[in-house]
Amino acid sequence: MEAKNESFEVKLERAKVILEQLSNPELSLEEGMKRYQEGILVLKEASAMIEEAKLTYAKLQEKEEKA
User: Fold this and answer.
1) Three-class SS of residue 35?
2) How far apart are CA 39 and CA 44, in angstroms?
3) pLDDT tens for residues 6-38?
4) pTM of model > 0.70
5) Nearest to residue 7, comparing CAs of 53, 58, 57?
6) For labelling alongside 46, which of 6, 11, 35, 62 has CA 20 to 30 A away?
7) In 3D, which of 10, 11, 9 has the Cα closest to residue 40?
8) 8 A C-beta contact, residue 42 and residue 15
């Protein structure tokens, strides 16, 4: 289930698939909770990737301004 080295795009696609699964009215409560937890984890990982990219960008901008 967890793949820490997935790309941002793959994580986003996984989140979309999970959302589709959660929209299924035949999904059991237990399975729905599992999917929800997985979706939250995937979105947190994707969010962390965005934050890391922002920091990298800021550092590069800072270096560029000093040059």
Assistant:
1) helix
2) 9
3) 999 999 999 999 999 999 999 999 999 999 999
4) yes
5) 53
6) 62
7) 11
8) yes
Q: Which residues fall within 8 angstroms of residue 56, CB to CB, at 6 or more apart?
A: none
Question: How deeply is 18 buried, as exposed, middle or buried, from its count of CB atoms within 10 A (0-12, 13-18, 19+)?
Answer: buried
Q: Which two tokens stand for residue 16?
A: 């979309």
**Of 56, 33, 41, the residue nearest 3 (C-alpha):** 41
Q: Where are the domains of the chain?
A: 8-66
Say if CB 40 and CB 14 are below 8 A apart.
no
Structure tokens at 51: 């934050």
